[in-house]
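Predict structure. Chain length: 243.
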Amino acid sequence: MDTQVMERAPCLEDNPLFLADLLEDPASDYRAGRPHSRSVYEKRLTEDPPRPGFEKAPHFVYFYYVRFDADRRLRVKHYTYDHCAPIASGALKDVLQALVDNARGTDDNPSPDGSDFNAIEWTRTSYIAFFIDEESWSFYRSGDFLAGISFDNSPVPNHTFFDGVDLDLTVFDEETGLASERSAIAFVNHMKRNAAGDKLGEEKQKFKFDMNFKVGFADGCAPPLTVTFDPDGTNMGPPVPPP
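Prediction complete.
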């Protein structure tokens, strides 16, 4: 995984070349021989009605807790959680809040089952959620000039990760007990093998994705930095039931 840091332009006019690329017709990706990767914010399950082939809400959550330790080293903890029943989109925030409380508390229900951003594998139709437990860090959101999670640089374009939501989850200071909010993003991995929506078969698909953060300065005056992590994740087919 590489980490990139760049200063965010304070206004669009300051970066005309980037703006030109940003506003370019997505079809130009095809003209350049590069398949266009769809946004995680596109709706499938949460369309009204849900899109055919994408109707089933996941039972399962892959949850990734990200923070910096006291020595300022990055810590990433992986969790898998089976709700044993479909998780409606309206109930997802409560499920993720419970996972945050666990990760910051007893850390045993569920216990972490992985670390770092290495060997990320997904075997189930699921929600995938990332939570950054740092006050001055937040994911970019839908409508910003970057997305919190993007598959634009993936060798396999996005045809399976949709229904993204931006969330604020609550944490409590261990010393003062005061509540504050931290940034999270979640989306559904529908375990599809292609843009037609066919179910993933006996195959593996490796994706690269960018996690884009705004990082504030201590004085709170300067525009935030943009920090990008670029992990890999692999869909391992066929999906494990239940869907």
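Summary: Helices lie at 16-23, 28-31, 92-104.
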